[in-house]
Amino acid sequence: MAWIILLLAGLLEIGWAIGLKYTDGFTKLVPTVLTATSMVASVVLLGIAVRTLPLGTAYAVWTGVGMVGTVILGIVLFAEPATAIRLGCISLIIAGIAGLKLTA
């Protein structure tokens, strides 16, 4: 169950990271409220997950999920570059997340 909570926390991290783009420097009310809510919920769920998961593993997985998802959505939503090097680095992060999950 802790891994599911951690995955949800990572998905919310993606949400608030992408939401930052839509807040326009926190000048738009609805995107700002949604982004702030996602931030708080993400950290709360991370806190719940670390009750049973090792802190270092949980934090690394949380940031990794957020990082990979944010980069992928940046490519899809904002036409950010999808170079071979960027995609290779994303693959390394995914491998690291999988490795941490397998050893926890």
UniProtKB/TrEMBL annotation:
Alphabetized SUPFAM superfamilies for the sequence: Multidrug resistance efflux transporter EmrE
Keywords assigned by UniProt, alphabetized: Cell membrane, Membrane, Transmembrane, Transmembrane helix, Transport
Statement: the UniProt record of this protein carries the keyword Ion transport: no
Gene Ontology annotations of biological process type: xenobiotic detoxification by transmembrane export across the plasma membrane
Compartments in which it is found: Cell membrane
Cellular component terms (Gene Ontology): plasma membrane
InterPro entries noted in UniProt: EmrE-like, Small_drug/metabolite_transptr, Small_multidrug_res
Presence of keyword Ribonucleoprotein: no
Gene Ontology terms, MF aspect: transmembrane transporter activity
Membrane topology of this protein: Multi-pass membrane protein
Main subcellular location: membrane
Transmembrane segments: 29-50, 57-78, 84-103
PANTHER family associated with the record: GUANIDINIUM EXPORTER (PTHR30561:SF0), SMR FAMILY PROTON-DEPENDENT DRUG EFFLUX TRANSPORTER SUGE (PTHR30561)
Similarity section: Belongs to the drug/metabolite transporter (DMT) superfamily. Small multidrug resistance (SMR) (TC 2.A.7.1) family. Gdx/SugE subfamily.
Name by which UniProt lists this protein: Guanidinium exporter
Lineage of the organism: Bacteria, Pseudomonadati, Pseudomonadota, Alphaproteobacteria, Hyphomicrobiales
